[in-house]
């Protein structure tokens, strides 16, 4: 029986996938796994029993990754599960940034009570809300992950000329990208050519405030900027100044702050990117499947702190899963230890990721409680026998 603790309300589409061998709920104690959406885990004491955490979403800023790695806890996310939901809102953002629809609707409300004169007042005042069509305009997509690719393809189908920039574009991702997308070699190429720019990159020390006074100065006049990735990718003070100066026509963000609310040219959406029932179901389903495969088979898919390693399961063998530091000769030492115990390695998969590595061994022979002895090495973080 595995215990799975939910730190947020998780869609039953996901929780029902665990089956009878799992105890799943918000009040579960001594969990082997945690399901989380937005709840912060930074101040949470991680129980000794904890083996894995799955974030039902893409961002993992609410999870202490370094602390988890040191404790041998695998952290998963669900990339792509909410991609379509975010894409649809980005397309809405493109349209809203162009046509001044929101301010037009708010103005129309003020005409209430004018009776038959409303129609004439609308015709007289509508010119204040004129804006360009997006068809034929140039869109720069910074970051071609699951969301960025969908945005690029959708914009192309709406008649836009699309530039894409991503120095880390994977082969699998490239297969899904429209061939008509122009491959920008640098960010400056995006800045210099595009009427609209949308950002879809993770928040890292390198990307924090990447949209700032310096980068905005390289952009076309009247550029429209969209940020549905992370609020801190954009320097708030710089974007507000650029809006006030007329350099930027509109800033659409899914991350409202006090200074953004009510500012001229800012369209602040209350973090609705992934807020659809379909997205929540998709994220819950993927997170549950990741946890099940790890707990039952030791396979890792979509981890953010350990390498992805999977190996087909053969019931004839005992599976040994080892999280260890990425240092020379660790696998050799493991093999030597197993040989001492009279254990033979039948199959093996091992990969590293920065400071840590993960190894799956299918073995024959009786471990006879010797797994604990394998953890005596300072380089071995956690050993699990399945």
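Sequence proposed for the structure above (386 residues):
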């Amino acid at each position: 029986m595995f215990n799975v603790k939910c730190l947020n309300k998780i869609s039953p589409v996901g929780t029902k996938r665990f089956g009878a061998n799992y105890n799943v709920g918000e009040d579960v104690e001594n969990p082997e796994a945690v399901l989380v959406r937005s709840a912060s885990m930074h101040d949470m004491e991680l129980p000794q029993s904890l083996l894995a955490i799955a974030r039902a979403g893409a961002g993992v800023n609410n999870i202490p990754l370094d602390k988890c790695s040191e404790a041998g806890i695998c952290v998963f996310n669900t990339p792509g599960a909410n991609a379509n939901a975010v894409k649809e809102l980005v397309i809405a953002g493109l349209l809203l940034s162009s046509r001044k629809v929101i301010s037009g609707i708010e103005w129309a409300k003020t005409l209430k009570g004018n009776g038959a004169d409303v129609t004439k007042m609308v015709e007289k005042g509508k010119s204040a809300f004129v804006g360009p069509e997006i068809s034929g305009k140039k869109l720069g997509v910074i970051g071609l992950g699951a969301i960025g690719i969908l945005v690029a393809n959708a914009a192309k189908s709406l008649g836009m000329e699309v530039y894409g920039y991503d120095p880390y574009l994977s082969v699998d991702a490239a297969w899904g990208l429209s061939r008509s997308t122009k491959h920008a070699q640098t960010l400056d190429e995006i800045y210099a050519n595009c009427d609209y720019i949308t950002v879809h990159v993770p928040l890292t020390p390198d990307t924090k405030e990447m949209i700032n006074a310096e980068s905005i100065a390289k952009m076309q006049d009247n550029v429209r900027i969209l940020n549905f990735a992370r609020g801190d990718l954009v320097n708030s003070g710089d974007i507000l100044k650029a809006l006030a100066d007329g350099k930027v026509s509109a800033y659409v963000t899914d991350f409202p702050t006090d200074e953004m609310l009510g500012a001229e040219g800012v369209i602040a959406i209350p973090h609705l990117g992934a807020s659809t029932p379909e997205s929540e179901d998709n994220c819950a389903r993927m997170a549950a499947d990741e946890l099940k495969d790890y707990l039952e088979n030791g396979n890792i898919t979509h981890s953010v702190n350990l390498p992805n390693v999977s190996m087909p399961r053969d019931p004839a063998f005992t599976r040994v899963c080892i999280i260890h530091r990425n240092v020379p000769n660790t696998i050799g030492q493991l093999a030597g230890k197993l040989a001492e115990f009279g254990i033979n390695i039948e199959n093996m998969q091992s990969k590293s990721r920065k400071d840590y590595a993960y190894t799956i061994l299918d073995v024959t022979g009786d471990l006879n409680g010797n797994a604990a002895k394998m953890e005596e090495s300072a380089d071995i973080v956690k050993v699990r026998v399945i």
